[in-house]
Amino acid sequence: MSDKIIPEKNLKNILDSTIKYVMCGVQKCEKEYIELNKIQIKKDNKIANLTNKFQNGKITKEKYELQVTKLTKEFQKTKENFKFIECSLNNCFEFIKKLLLIMVKNFMIKYKDDKEKLNKLKVYYKLFNKTKINIKDVRQFYNEFI
Is-contact 95 21, C-beta < 8 A? Predict the structure, then answer.
């Protein structure tokens, strides 16, 4: 979302919602969180290695940023992350619902000039604004926009 600026209010909402979602998930989805954390540690170690390479001049800033973005996206699409999300949908629904809606709104800002993506995002907004959210819809959203 680097090419469009996210309003400061939205950033605060993202942070607040993320903290509440994760705290609920840690408490109610402990098993899934532990598995997700194992993957997170591996990702963080890879990013630390990339950081060292960048600081030592072995890779360019562009390559560093691309690799970090790639690792982050791969992490977000892991089966462990989706298991955590699915557990959260069952146990922390209001928190994940709010976070998903904020994510969709922010992508709407990013893609405000892209009618096709904007229309897809409007559909996701309606899907995620219901009293029940399907993990398949979340996966599809992640595959299209994350």
Answer: yes
Question: What residue has token string 């605060």?
Answer: 12
User: pLDDT tens for residues 112-129?
Assistant: 999 999 999 999 999 999
| Sequence-ordered alpha helix ranges (H) in 2-114 | 8-28, 30-55, 61-76, 79-91, 93-110
Digit-coded pLDDT (tens) for 42-78? 999 999 999 999 999 999 999 999 999 999 999 999 9
Packing angle, helices 135-145 and 115-128, rounded to 10: 150
Is the pTM here over 0.90, yes or no? no
User: Distance between CA atoms of 121 and 144, rounded to whole angstroms?
Assistant: 10
The residue with tokens 């996966």 is 139
Q: Give, to the nearest 10 degrees, the angle between helix 30-55 and helix 79-91.
A: 140
